[in-house]
Amino acid sequence: MAALVSSIFRVAMISVRMFSSHWRSCALAASLPFCMSSQISAQPPPEEVAIRAIDAAELRRETRLRGYTVTEHYTIKTSRFHSSAEMTVAVEYRRDKGKTYQIVSRTGSAMLQSKVFDRLLREEGEMSRGEARQQTLVNSRNYEIHLKNEEIRAGRKTYVLDLTPRKASSHLLKGRAWIDAEDGTLMRIEGRPTASASFFAGRPMITREYEKAGNLSLAKSTLADSSSFLFGKTELRIDYSDYHIDVEPTQ
Question: What angle do CA 155, 187, 74 make, to 5 degrees?
């Protein structure tokens, strides 16, 4: 009799353990959709990811890039006077001093040299230092940024962003930017300044292409097209070549 009771007790305990295990499994299975939903909802939306990426890339460039030298070649053509001019400049940028320029060669219209090239170099030098430089960066401090779509450029996933300057400036463009989705580096920006540049009448359409140096972006070319009563249709192009960069060592 005792043996029979013992056997019944063992069977009952096994049934209890199996039921308990089954209940825990059911409870876990029931909670999985909630857990997975929580993980999915915890992911920031794509627009926030893109904004964080471009902000981080600009901050990385400003903190890591101690300086560089580059050769800049300027070409300008106007339709009204059928005139043109060219200039080659050796540029040095230092984080604590901004840009300095040494003119290597000039050809063409003396008026375009003085009215456009000289004023452009002077303003670019002024805008490359201190707080003035910070106000030209492509980041969420200076722009309202919205994700438009995604593209593949040069075999890489790219975010296409709509940019609206937070204030009127000849150095901030209302338009679009293309950034590398992996590291946020600028690949291209295009648009019109929200204030007229002093060396252009009106607001030119500006397109700037970038190239990568590690995980930093550097200007490759700039094209500015404008029309005005004084000069007619004007095309200004700047090509950047022979970069030598000085960066902070990685930790």
Answer: 125
